[in-house]
Specification:
It contains 10 helices and 6 strands. It has helices at 15-36, 42-67, 69-72, 89-106, 111-136, 146-151, 156-161, 172-191, 200-217, 231-251; strands at residues 4-7, 12-14, 163-164, 167-168, 225-226, 229-230.
């Protein structure tokens, strides 16, 4: 499977970049659509998305480079070759969260409601973006057999794409993509509940993604490591714990208080 979608000679367009951009576009479009329900100015939400994307990508790259410094310290120019892969989603989430907190506080907007709006777009973007790993031949699991892949009833192009240097590997990119897509459906339905409280959708995202990533990471062969520990699994555990605590806290009190879909409980944004 070639990582290059189009080679024009003077420029190469990589599948990885296309899938990341597609995920950002679809996720961003859903965020803008949802924000309109709460009369959030479009300029405000577009600026927030752009800032979050820019710093999220920077954070995702820095996070990856930090834990692969033994390589990049001797290949400094490769740090900028993001089209070749090497974006760690946890780094993107951390930097993106910082931007959202700063931006929402600046304009006195409820940060958790904004996160509830964003995480649904985020998780579908993650689902799509994982396909960039497929075309790059990365983020795969351990060696396996052709018969095992066929037993999963996968399309032939995925099976052939999982044959790297003559060896078949488990498609962990696909496991995570499907897990995120299921999470997208769950969050979408959950957020539409009449008594969904502000912050609960964000908490559910942290729990759902944390659980899936923890187990899928255990299969991957390219995990970022801290001594003998997989960094992604450590962060996933933190996400699960934070998500559970946040969900419990936001579930307290009357079922009629602090509702996400309460159109009367909306911050006035002067942008």
């Amino acid at each position: 499977m070639s990582p290059i979608l189009l080679d024009l000679g003077f420029i190469k367009i990589y599948w990885y970049s296309v899938m990341i951009l597609l995920g950002l576009f679809i996720g961003g479009s859903l965020i803008i659509k949802e924000s309109k329900k709460f009369k959030i100015p479009e300029d405000y939400i577009i600026n927030l998305i752009l800032y979050t994307i820019v710093f999220g990508i920077i954070g995702a790259r820095l996070y990856y480079v930090l834990f692969e410094w033994s390589y990049y310290s001797n290949n400094l120019l490769d740090i900028f070759k993001v089209w070749e892969g090497g974006l760690a989603i946890h780094g993107g989430i951390i930097f993106g969260l910082i931007v959202i907190i700063i931006y929402t506080r600046k304009y006195k907007v409820n940060t958790l409601r904004m996160l509830d709006i964003i995480v649904v777009g985020l998780i579908i973007g993650q689902s799509i973006g994982r396909w960039g790993n497929f075309f790059n031949g990365e983020a795969h699991g351990p060696m396996t057999t052709l018969s095992f892949l066929e037993s999963l009833h996968l399309p032939n192009f995925i099976i052939e794409g999982m044959k790297i240097n003559g060896i078949y590997y488990q498609p962990t990119f696909l496991y995570e993509s499907i897990w995120c897509f299921i999470g997208f459906i769950i969050l979408l339905i959950f957020r539409r509940r009449k008594y969904c409280k502000i912050g609960q959708t964000t908490a559910l995202y942290a729990i759902w993604y944390g659980i899936g990533r923890f187990f899928i990471e255990g299969l991957r062969t390219d995990s970022l490591m801290f001594f003998n520990l997989r960094i992604a699994q450590i962060v996933s555990i933190l996400l699960i714990v934070i998500g559970i605590i946040l969900f419990i806290i936001k579930s307290k009190g009357s079922v009629f208080d602090n509702l996400y879909n309460d159109k009367e409980n909306i911050d006035e944004i002067r942008f």
